[in-house]
Amino acid sequence: MKELERHECCEGEVRFLTFPSQALGLPTKLGLFLPKAALEGKKVPVVYALAGLTCTQETFLIKANAVRYAAEHGLALVTPDTSPRGAQVAAEDEAYDLGTGAGFYVDATAQPWAAHYRMWSYVGQELPGVLEAAFPLDGERCGIMGHSMGGMGALAFGLRNPRKWKTVSAFAPICAPARVPWGQKVTETYFGGDEAQWRHYDPCLLLTEGYRTAGKILVDQGLKDEFLPILCPDLLEQAAREAGQPLELRRHKLYDHSYWFVQSFIASQILHHARGLTSQPGG
Ligand SMILES: N[C@@H](CCC(=O)N[C@@H](CSC=O)C(=O)NCC(=O)O)C(=O)O
């Protein structure tokens, strides 16, 4: 693990790191906020924040205004990159919604993508192990959140592995990727046309298959979101209702898809994780 940057922030530290990922078969970068207690060597709860299409390990930390709330509640934040970089796949830099910056938090099954596009294994397995060995992060108190493509990832990780991800939330997640153009493009490329792969990652399909999170899922969605028709929050609500999965879906009339929206509701999403991961009131 090599440190690229370190900045004092909200009595803790924001660090940018790189290491050679075995899952991705490439070096990868990530952001890490360590609150004051972690700098003093105490094990702290941690929330992974997964960003959306076109983002990097920096985007969420810079734009979501999450650090001050994480610091307030003594939470660490981890912000992975959104795809492998430099995989040398033809076409990986041609569109914003495929390839670089668009890993979709899945493991590709079709070549040439399958060699490096393995964000599911990287974020879900490799990264927590590497970080928990290197920093005072409590592997028993992990939460996961995300925006858009990252919201989809957060829901999928939370549903598939509730023992690891004790708290789950999302901003404007892609709720039914198998049914919408973004996901169909993934099917044609990363999955080589095998639509059935979505059964591992599509939040609505996972709910239908019986997967559940440990506690209530919190989702914020803007109603002026330019991507609303392909995010399908109504389908998530219906799938959760039918599955008996507790879900609080908060619809916000005036908000779009941007980080201005994320920033507006980040305090209560961080509180949701703090309550679930610490002994704070209401937890
Ligand atoms: N018009 C954009 C489209 C990409 C975009 O809106 N990306 C969103 C996430 S969308 C789903 O995952 C985002 O978070 N962008 C970064 C930002 O700083 O807002 C384009 O063509 O780039």
Short synopsis of the structure:
Belongs to the esterase D family. The protein is an alpha/beta fold. Helices cover 33% and strands 24% of the residues.
- Topology pattern, helix = H, strand = E: EEEHEHHEHEHEHHEHHEH
Strand content: 15-25%
Q: DSSP helix count?
A: 10
- The global form is globular
Q: How many domains, as an integer?
A: 1
Helix percent reads 25-40%
Q: Which residue ranges are poorly predicted, with pLDDT under 50 across at least 5 consecutive positions?
A: none
Q: Class, according to the CATH hierarchy?
A: Alpha Beta
What fold name stands as the CATH topology?
Rossmann fold
CATH superfamily, please?
Alpha/Beta hydrolase fold, catalytic domain
Instruction: Please state the average pLDDT score.
Output: 97
Small molecules in complex: the ligand N[C@@H](CCC(=O)N[C@@H](CSC=O)C(=O)NCC(=O)O)C(=O)O
The order of strands across the largest sheet is 1-2-3-5-4-6-7-8-9
What structural keywords apply?
283 residues; alpha/beta; Rossmann fold; nine-stranded mixed sheet; 9 strands; binds ligand LAXINWYW; S-formylglutathione hydrolase; S-formylglutathione hydrolase activity; Esterase-like; carboxylic ester hydrolase activity
Structure explained in plain terms:
One of its GO terms (cellular component) is cytosol. GO terms for molecular function: carboxylic ester hydrolase activity; S-formylglutathione hydrolase activity. This is S-formylglutathione hydrolase. By secondary structure, the protein is α/β, with parallel strands linked by helices. The chain has one domain: Alpha/Beta hydrolase fold, catalytic domain (Rossmann fold), CATH 3.40.50.1820. The chain is 33% helix and 24% strand. The chain has a nine-stranded mixed beta sheet with strand order 1-2-3-5-4-6-7-8-9, with helices on both faces. α5 links the parallel β6 and β7. The longest helix has 19 residues. The chain starts with a strand and ends in a 6-residue tail after the last helix. 50% of the residues are buried. The ligand N[C@@H](CCC(=O)N[C@@H](CSC=O)C(=O)NCC(=O)O)C(=O)O binds next to α2.
